[in-house]
Amino acid sequence: MSRSRLETLAYRMLGSVADAEDVLQEARLRRLKLATPPDNEEAWLTRVVTNLSLDRLREQQRRREAYTGPWLPEPLPTAPEEVSGPEGVAELAEQLSMGLMLMLDRLNPTERAVFVLREGFDLPFDDIGAMLDSSAASCRQRYRRARTHLAGDERHGSAGPPAMQRQLLEAMLTAVAERDLPGLVALFAEDCVAYADGGGVVSAAIIPVTDPERIARVTLHVVERLAAEGEMDIHWTSFNGNPGLVIAQGPRLVATVQLEVDAGLIHRVYIVRNPEKLGHIELSP
Question: Residue 82's pLDDT is what?
Fold first, then answer.
């Protein structure tokens, strides 16, 4: 498993770039302390990263009990040239989509580890059991339970075609720039939900926003407030294998925006405003 795949494993377990980097650093340190190299370095590193991620995930869950408003994963900057391995860009986008990352939060830590190792890396249950000090039969059962927990919302595990995401992001920008409320409302599906993660650090809706007209009005209101604070710059980028936007005011990043789309409409809006989740993002000059 290459470094890139280890990063993907840790991020899929944790939804946090910073925590994933800490896990990888700890795994490297443990590797350096070994007197002799492991017989199978790939399997050894996968096991260490998985178990360190499990420990960190349990700590995360305790901290999240006091989190203000919706919790969203940290946007993971991605680019085609960074993708290695057989999964390719399209599969990476499916594995890392914001919707699927949120769905994984429904699982308990061990179920999440089994699901990620099986679905994301196609590991046999015998190997997964060895990594988790469990039996193959137990891991198979946990995998079935994980699939059951995630059933019924498969559409929101995928962000939708990237070209459609880009098209609808552009349409959103145009409608917002023109303060076109009806045009903005028309972009959202009836069951659309908008999530804004401010973490209690900056202003953001503390509950998910529903109803197309309400989402549109809140969007225009937030943009007006940001515009009053200073000129905004919009940067196109790629997060979690999908198109995304970064909103900046000078050198300060104020938000990222990602969509989940289907049949030409927006079904989910994910806005990350918590500054603690934006510090790892670098804008192209």
Answer: 44
